[in-house]
């Protein structure tokens, strides 16, 4: 049972190996179909050494003859490239169609002798500054066929390589001896660990936007930010939520419902994956609600700023109205006007005009309109 206690340590990447989950490694074994990244037979927890790369058909013949299981990794196979593998392993046509076409919702489907699982992988896109067109997350897909003596992964997208994970599993023979279900758990745990890392990075972006929205601008009032930045971040969070939320139910099924293809010692550890996934889902839902509040606050600040500008414009218009009225009165072409012949009429009128303007300005200033 010591192997089981160390299960999570075995499948989780060390910090120095996080880079293995980055871009897709295009290295392929020569002589295999172009979509096949790796094909190997595992017996008693160890990879069976071969002189030349195995084809999926050759690997399966070895398994049927000598035991063990085969793990085949493919990247974006075409329908023709996947057809031979599907026939060899008896994969269900509906699952094969989903695996080839991609763009599937995370799910778990049970067929006669296999399980079909779809994972959405999330990769955080580094950026110097958030803009209205910034790409925050990239998504990919990992589709897994789990059988009694085979495990097939079909990946779509330019990130989410499983090469580092395969190497770590090969370093733990006791774990691999548990069969394909151990690989399925390792991939599920690997994907959810990726979610946790992305959640932390997205949290930093949201904190940055929140600070910018509520940071003081001129005269101590919040200066706000571009609503396009908030909306773009909200769209990226929505894409993240579409990857996380549908996966929670499949992980709960794998942890709670006994399945013939899942080793009992491995099954209990799917519960841990489901718990981590539930926490990520809560955080992502919280991000969505927080961004709604930030967007509303930003729009309210924009409305307040516009009202403040209108008040200032109105105040100055009221001040300018006094000399405008006086000039309008004296600009009329009446011959007999009492003030026209007064010795001190001009300075008196100008003084009254200036006094009225200053009084209005003082009143508006005291009331906060200027």
How would you portray this structure in words?
The protein is an alpha+beta fold and 370 residues long. Helices cover 55% and strands 14% of the residues. The protein has helices spanning 2-5, 7-11, 56-66, 79-89, 93-101, 163-170, 173-176, 180-214, 227-244, 248-256, 264-330, 345-366; strands at residues 36-43, 46-47, 69-75, 107-110, 114-124, 137-147, 150-156. A seven-stranded mixed sheet has the order 2-1-3-7-6-5-4, sandwiched between helices. A hairpin with a 2-residue loop joins strand 1 (36-43) and strand 2. The relative contact order is 0.10. Residues 1-33 have low confidence and may be disordered.
Q: Classify the beta-strand content into a percent band.
A: 5-15%
What share of residues is helical?
A: 40-55%
Q: How would you name the oligomeric state of the polypeptide chains in this document?
A: single chain
Q: Globular, elongated, flat, extended or rod-shaped: what is the shape?
A: rod-shaped
Q: In total, how many beta strands? A: 7
Distance between the termini: 76 Å
User: Could you spell the SSE succession in H and E letters?
Assistant: HHEEHEHHEEEEHHHHHHH
Return the average pLDDT rounded to an integer: 81
Largest sheet: 7 strands, mixed
The helix tally amounts to 12
Low-confidence stretches: 1-33
Radius of gyration: 34 Å
Strand order of the largest sheet: 2-1-3-7-6-5-4
């Amino acid at each position: 049972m010591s192997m089981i206690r160390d299960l999570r340590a075995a499948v989780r990447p060390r910090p120095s190996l996080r880079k293995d989950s980055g871009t897709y490694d295009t290295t392929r074994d020569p002589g295999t179909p172009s979509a096949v990244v790796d094909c190997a037979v595992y017996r008693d927890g160890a990879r069976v050494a071969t002189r030349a790369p195995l084809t999926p058909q050759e690997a399966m013949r070895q398994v049927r003859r000598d035991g063990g299981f085969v793990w085949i990794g493919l990247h974006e196979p075409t329908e023709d490239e996947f057809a031979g593998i599907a026939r060899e392993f008896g994969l269900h046509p509906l699952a094969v169609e989903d695996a080839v076409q991609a763009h599937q919702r995370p799910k778990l489907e049970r067929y006669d002798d296999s399980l079909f699982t779809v994972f959405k992988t999330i990769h955080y896109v580094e950026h110097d500054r958030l803009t209205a067109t910034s790409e925050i997350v990239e998504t990919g897909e990992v589709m897994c066929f789990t059988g009694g003596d085979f495990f097939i992964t079909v990946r779509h997208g330019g990130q989410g390589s499983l090469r580092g994970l395969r190497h770590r599993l090969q370093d733990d023979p006791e774990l691999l001896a548990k069969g394909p279900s151990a690989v399925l758990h390792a991939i599920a745990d690997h994907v959810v660990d990726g979610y946790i890392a992305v959640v932390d990075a997205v949290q930093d972006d949201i904190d940055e936007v929140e600070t910018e929205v509520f940071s003081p601008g001129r005269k101590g009032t919040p200066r706000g930010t571009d609503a396009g930045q908030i909306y773009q971040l909200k769209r990226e969070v929505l894409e993240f939520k579409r990857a996380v939320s549908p996966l929670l139910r499949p992980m709960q099924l794998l942890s709670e419902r006994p399945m013939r293809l899942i080793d009992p010692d491995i099954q209990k550890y799917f519960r841990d994956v489901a718990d981590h996934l539930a926490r990520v889902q809560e955080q992502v839902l919280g991000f969505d609600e927080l961004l709604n509040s930030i967007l509303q606050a930003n729009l309210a600040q924009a409305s307040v700023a516009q009202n403040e500008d209108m008040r200032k414009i109105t105040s100055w218009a009221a001040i300018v109205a006094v000399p405008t009225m006086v000039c309008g009165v004296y600009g009329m072409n009446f011959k007999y006007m009492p003030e026209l012949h007064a010795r001190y009429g001009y300075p008196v009128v100008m003084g009254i005009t200036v006094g009225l303007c200053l009084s209005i300005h003082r009143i508006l200033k005291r009331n906060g309109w200027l």
